[in-house]
Write a structure and sequence with these properties.
Layout (H helix, E strand, L loop, with lengths): L1 H16 L18 E4 L6 H13 L3 E3 L8 E4 L4 H10 L9 E4 H10 L26 H6 L18 H16 L3 H16 L18 H13 L3 H8 L1 H9 L7 H9 L5 H6 L7 H8 L1 H5 L2 E2 H18 L4 E5 L8 E2 L3 E5 L9 H26 L1 E4 L2 E4 L4 E3 L4 H7 L13
Parallel strand pairs: 1-2, 1-3, 3-4
Antiparallel strand pairs: 5-7, 6-8, 9-10, 10-11
Helix pairs in contact: 6-7, 6-8, 6-9, 10-11, 15-16
Amino acid sequence: MDKIKASGVISHRKRQKGLHSPKVSCSYEIKFTKFVIFIMQRKMGITRRMFLTELARRKGFRVESELSDSVTHIVAENNSYLEVLDWLKGQAVHDSSRFELLDISWFTACMEAGRPVDSEMKYRLMEQCQSPLNTPESEVPSFIARKVSQYSCQRKTTLNNYNKKFTDAFEIMAENYEFKENEIFCLEFLRAASLLKYLPFPVTRMKDIQGLPCIGDQVRDVIEGIIEEGESSRVKEVLNDERYKAFKQFTSVFGVGVKTSEKWYRMGLRTVEELKADKTLKLSKMQKAGFLYYEDLVSCVSKAEADAVTLIVKNTVSTFLPDALVTITGGFRRGKKMGHDIDFLITNPGPREDDELLHKVVDLWKKQEFGRDLRRYASHERKMILDNHGLYDRRKRIFLKAGSEEEIFAHLGLDYVEPWERNA
């Protein structure tokens, strides 16, 4: 009877507080029973929240899908203490003291450690009593921080990067986590790099990043190391790591990703030169092209080269769609002077569409590469001129009649090569 009464009281209290019954996933073993986590979706989005929830459950944490009486830790991303309190009030919760209100940096620290870490002061969300009015010059960065959006699409970021030493370090860390297929930490550093590129001032002290979104605990460690020592020991370790250096080389080959790099690394391979020398490797068509044109693909492209290529693309596309618009996008559109590739957007304002446009463009270029070598042969070996108008014999000073490709080959004294045999 007592058990029934107790159960009734609890249910009644839950209805009063607007809390839901706990729904615990039974798919994974719960290792840390004293910690019951609830991840706020506010400002995070459903997809990221689902990913973080799944990640934590795989590591043995208990994560509730809905707020319940059993929750001990509430994790928020890019939410202030007051914003979390306001959200809790909306859930009919007026006593927040029974929860640990923590920043996402505590969660990521737990994921990295594979166990709960102490909810130190730096992880806790606390009320701030700073006033934005009459902010002294020494406090300007903190004041700016409150106006910084967590979304890069809402931040105007120019090429004037005042924090390159930090953003370069972040990108190395992000790449290392990408090689380890750790998406959560990779994104943490990429978002931090994007944010620091936006800041209109150089970060020179830890106080400069106070209140900024997208700055997790790992990011803070790297920033602190660079401020105090001039470099980050963590970044230095990554740059000296054999696995990172090998993956860096492997993935520089077109068509090679993390999975293939892992396979080759386990085979004992470490450099591109070793890959080229190993004749036992089974390569895909893209990877074969990647090795064949390796030097060209890893070299940088200048703005002048990009403009020249754009003209070629426009002229070729207009052959099939005269009204089509070819717009250069990517880094060169954003004002960069150097890049690693050239991106285009091809649109047709008219009603006509051509699903085979790209295939036609590439096929035409292939034919022109065959034609270029044929023109070179005609000029150097036969003293003839081959162009779009016909075949001209410079010694006889006459145009040679040719109604087909076969006749052109015959005039040049060459055996005819079928089109499908011209994939040189």
